[in-house]
Design brief:
28% helix, alpha/beta, 5-stranded parallel β-sheet, Rossmann fold
Length: 241
């Protein structure tokens, strides 16, 4: 059965910003761009004709602010606000926006926002190919950018993630994937009931831990260090599993 798509609308009066959104949306397999608009009037017209699940909505636009436009919609889709000004963040969240992206938008931050949409709406990450009620971690997955494409990795296959310089290595039961991304941005995306940070450079799968001590955790015959900064939290979680 093919993946279901999240139908996205990008609304921004700045063409370069729209180009970035189009590029990012096209890079994520679970997203489908149904249209782009330069103002709220165009957006309202498109929404009346097409089904839209998610709007990437600029706040400062001609004729009407994005926040005011959202208030006019009777049954609005999920919204991720986009703006160059932090001062609009509070108002955006008061309108139940899923997230708030500050320009210029990095791809890592874009992925984090989209994952929040998935968590809020579909109990997943960047895909809809599992049933909403499914709780099996083997049914969940995440996408990582590798070699100019998005690579799908099941969460259940991840053993640990290692950071080195500006890159991370995702070590799985089937191989290793390397991508340019910060380990902190991945930590924000991964479910904390399945993964734990044990060191500045390592995130491990809780289900893959075979044994541990105050200083080390063993996964798949590999020993990884537990740093002093994370030791208390690691022991607290592991002692209650």
């Amino acid at each position: 059965m093919p993946d279901k798509k999240i139908r996205c609308l990008a609304v921004d009066d700045e063409p370069p910003a729209l180009d970035v959104l189009k590029k990012y949306i096209s890079s994520v397999q679970s997203l489908e761009l149904v249209g782009t608009c330069a103002d709220a009037v165009e957006a309202l017209n498109l929404i009346s004709k097409r089904q839209v699940d998610l709007i990437f909505l600029d706040i400062q636009m001609p004729q009407i602010l994005g926040t005011d436009f959202l208030r006019t919609l009777k049954n609005p889709p999920k919204v991720i606000f986009i703006t160059a000004y932090r001062k609009f963040a509070i108002e955006g969240f008061e309108l139940d926006a899923v997230d708030y992206l500050l320009k210029p938008i990095s791809f890592d931050r874009f992925l984090k926002a989209v994952n929040r949409v998935m968590d809020a709406s579909f109990n997943g990450t960047l895909s809809l190919d599992k049933e909403p009620q499914a709780k099996d971690p083997g049914a969940q997955h995440i996408y990582f950018r590798t070699n100019r494409k998005m690579t799908k990795i099941a969460l259940a296959d991840i053993i640990y993630i290692e950071s080195f310089k500006d890159y991370i290595k995702i070590i799985t039961t089937t191989g290793t994937v390397i991508t340019k991304q910060s380990i902190s941005s991945v930590e924000d995306i991964l479910p904390n009931d399945l993964f734990i940070r044990v060191h500045r450079s390592f995130i491990v799968s809780l289900n893959k831990i075979e044994s541990y001590s105050n200083e080390l955790v063993c996964l798949n015959k590999v020993e990884l260090p537990i740093s002093r900064m994370y030791r208390h939290e690691v022991e607290r979680i592991l002692n209650h599993r």
